[in-house]
Amino acid sequence: MAIVTLVAHHLIPGNTTTVGFAYLLFVLIVASTWGFVEASFASILATLTYNFFFLPPVGQFTIADPQNWVALFTFLATSLIASRLSDQAKHRAMDAVARQRDLERLYTFSRAILLIEGTRTFPKELAQKLAEIFGLSAVVLFDRRADEMYLAGPSDFDGMEDQLREAALNGTSFADPSRNRVIAAVRLGSEPIASLALQGVQMPDSVLQGIANLVAIGLERAKAQDLTRQIEVARQSEQLRTTLIDAMAHEFKTPLTSIKAVTTSLLANPDQPSQTRSELLTVADEEADHLKELIDNSVDMARLDMTHIDVALEDSDLTETAKEVVASMHTKIDGRPVEVSSKEPLPPAAFDRRLVKLAMKQLLDNALKYSPAGSPVTIEMKPVNGSVALDVTNHGETIPATEQGRIFERFYRSPSVHQIPGSGLGLSIAYRIARAHNGDLTVTSNSDGTTFRMTLPTGSKGAA
Predict the structure, then answer these.
(1) Neighbour tally for 7: CB within 10 Å
(2) pLDDT attached to residue 439
(3) Which CATH superfamily is domain 314-457 in?
């Protein structure tokens, strides 16, 4: 305003109308930049300056011509009204920007809900996303069905636990303006299912209600996913039991048939030569051992369906264990070249022989099934990074990289190998056995072949 006065009074003298419009423009700039209070002060100051410098008698706060009084008060009224309108337009623009920002945050929050994986940690991650997206210092989500509170945000949230429970039970709301806190009920339809406490930023009721609605949708989605997962687990468990029963029935028939044939032959011809009877009894004894092994394996596989697997550690030789597995599977190997080797002395290892033999059988059976007939299969033992490793390598088709991360899942089978009989359990069983020993089972597959590596910790039974 000083610049306008200096220019109009000393440098480029102008008429009073032009000067009045210049002052009015100045008042509008103040109103649009700051607000109505500042614009009102600028209007009064501009009126006094206009009177002192440009209305006769100049240099005094008096007006000689009554018409100038009308002009002066018209200027003041115009300045105040214009500043008020400009201030209102500014606030409306700011409100529109705030509403746009709130809508963008609600949209971002809704997308974040869809991207949260898992159901056990869903409420906790939901609270964390809410705190991050809306810039809140503390968020507390109370899930009434789980009777748990989930906290997120950089600040602590003490007190108001009773209000959170009350809001979740009866749908009430609470507010603590002194600490920028608010508690709202989370409803699914008309029924409250949870409550939400927010701290740090004041927000309109419409935004708060939008957040509560999104939280309700997210919690219900997580509940539906959890129910679906439980149904799938139950289905897989039932399928596992059915598969195991079918597999056991099929496997048991072979030794039982041989034993039955021996006993039938001996009963039908009791006068057979002693050498023939001895040979038949030897066959029956071998098949009885085979049947016992099948029963032991079935019990072990049933143990693997439990959450916790108990391992009976004993100091063992991994190379000799592998040779025993190969010898027990001579029928399935059917003359194929299977080489067992250990190029370096192996450190001592303690493991559950029955479980590890079961895992080896699954890996060898997998190598035989998924490689061309007559192609070699190698089993190599070696020390690797403080562990002892068993590599089972075949020369079948390469496993795509997209499937290598899933082949250890129960019941998973590659879409390209459905013509090969199997249940999708073998690799899962081997993987769980390795993990139960604090080891691991990994796969590498390329044009040179596919290798499954099972690693087991080294050390004697006492050290383990």
Answers:
(1) 14
(2) 92
(3) Histidine kinase-like ATPase, C-terminal domain (3.30.565.10)
